[in-house]
Amino acid sequence: MKKFLSNHPLLMVVALLVSPQLWANDDAVKRGEYIAKLGDCSACHTAPEGQAYAGGLKFATPFGELYSTNITSHKDKGIGDYSLQDFKDALREGKGKHGRLYPAMPFTSYALVSDQDISDLYAYFMQVPAADVDNKDNDLNFPANFRFGLIFWSWLNHDPQPFKPIANKPEAYNRGAYIVNGLGHCGECHTTRTKTFGIDKDRIFMGQVIDGKYAPNITATELNRQGWTYRSLNDLFREGYSSKGTTFGGMFTLISHSMQHLTESDMKAVASYLLDQAELDVDAKTPQAKVSIDETSPGYELYEAHCAGCHGGQGQGVPNVAPAMVGNATLDQNHPFNTVAVLLKGIEPQRYSYVRAFGEMPGYETRLTDAQLLTLVNFLRESFTEQSEPVTQQQLDDIRDQIPDNAAH
Amino acid sequence: MSTFSFTLNGEQIGPLELDSDTAMIEVLHEYLNMTGTKFGCGIGVCRACTVIVDNDDGTSEVMRSCINNVGAFNGKKVRTVEGHATTKASGEVQLSPVQQAYIEGYAFQCGWCTSGMVNAATVLIEQLRREPIKKNQIESRIEEALEHHICRCTGYKKYYESLKKLIEETEELWT
Description:
- The structure holds 2 protein chains of 2 kinds.
- Chain A is mainly alpha-helical.
- Chain A has helices at 2-6, 9-18, 20-38, 41-45, 84-93, 107-110, 115-125, 149-157, 171-183, 187-190, 220-225, 230-239, 250-257, 264-274, 298-306, 308-311, 337-345, 370-384, 393-401, and strands spanning 58-61, 64-67, 95-96, 99-100, 139-140, 208-210, 213-215, 241-242, 245-246, 350-353, 356-358.
- Chain A has a 3-stranded antiparallel β-sheet with strand order 1-2-5, with no helix packed on it. A two-stranded antiparallel ribbon of chain A has the order 3-4.
- In chain A, a hairpin with a 2-residue loop joins strand 6 and strand 7.
- Chain A is globular and about 70 Å long.
- The N and C termini of chain A lie far apart (48 Å).
- The longest helix of chain B is centred in the last third of the chain and has 17 residues, at 114-130.
- The radius of gyration of chain B is 16 Å and the shape is globular.
- In chain B, the strands form 2 sheets. Chain B has a 5-stranded mixed β-sheet with strand order 2-1-5-3-4, with helices on one face. A two-stranded antiparallel ribbon of chain B has the order 6-7.
- By secondary structure, chain B is of the alpha+beta class.
- In chain B, helix 3 (114-130) crosses helix 4.
- Classes of the chains: A mainly alpha, B alpha+beta.
């Protein structure tokens, strides 16, 4: 029918004029496409080199291997036979037509998503081209291989409640809270898990180690302590790079798939919520960061030999080569995990945009001894952050144990 | 200013009085007149400036001389592209197997990336000599060793094929 209409432009115009439902559906699909980006659905449901939303991405979990599913409009292999209610049940309650969903699907966060957004998202997915791709079988250990047990998990860890705006906060702030906690599902990575692998509601956004990296503390208290502003958050979320440093690992891909697509008003809303600024200060400048370099220290000798070539003798960074150490939020995290992990394993080259790219950072696991690594880490923290607690050999060992051998960030 | 010493192609260098923020490639070019190692991108991406560092345990590894300052090589044993060929008593120059393979395979044109390509391949050969691999791993190990090296004349295929031929013809490198 579409082909017939497209070959007869006049008929197509008439059809559109007499069919307001078509217009309405187009709008819903467009809104749904944006919501799918906010929810970063493609990150998990698209395998490398695979068809969009055809699933097949492997997740290595403590219980075995789990694969994301085909969520295209294919009637048998995807979700093409889902009703709107089926779709809602999956998103908010983790109930798929084939059984309970594993909580790798962040339904504990998506429970906050509004009826309108779910309806738009449904309209979008129902027109995503059907992928004739079979779902892969999970390879999970007992008892995780029985979906029946997920009822118990949900009973313990999932309380689906609609989003409740905070009464004394402006609309934009609440919009930010809705995006960050719901569609953005930021808490899924940035919050510690309980013993039953639910989100620890007492430690929301306070950071946790995941996949050999530390998803940092992103509470407003911590972000403000580090000197984040609307401008630096906007830069980070648009390009993966800001005056506060760069993203790597999962957050880097999240930005390219999802956050860079935020509308300007949603970006402001997210910043307003994350920084806990009811009235967002869009002109705030990044505060002067600490620089206190002891050029006679053994740490500086190591820094000059191995780091200064790219990061600058005074930690000032070099555009499109390496980020500054001055004001660097990764260095300034209370937990030294990422500083140590990056020093050990390095960072893959990253292209943030057509005009912004950084080369690879080498790993120093085999080039520096543990004593040298500790001297260097502590020099970096002393020189460029307010972190006064020295990193110990025990911490270095613990961090090393939590990084997969083949990790690169 | 600080004092630095290292060996370069077996010869003791230093102690040299240098600013400690001097890149190793600058030391090679400007202080030691060793210009075989090429300066490419200057940000550690193209690998033209790759040199070899020999470790005390008999292993060797590649290091980029543009992003590492001289201090990173202090006390180390460094090899550059000038150190691979030997001269016979007759005065005849004997190229290393890697150099010979690249020449026979017409691997390079302008030569800018060649120092890095020779050093990376040499380290690979030395690794395989210590720990031979299965024959079916040869291609992946070459890709791993050379994949980040940028050749602006796009001679990748000939570098790859030359090195593959050399490894396949050197039977002690694989089982």
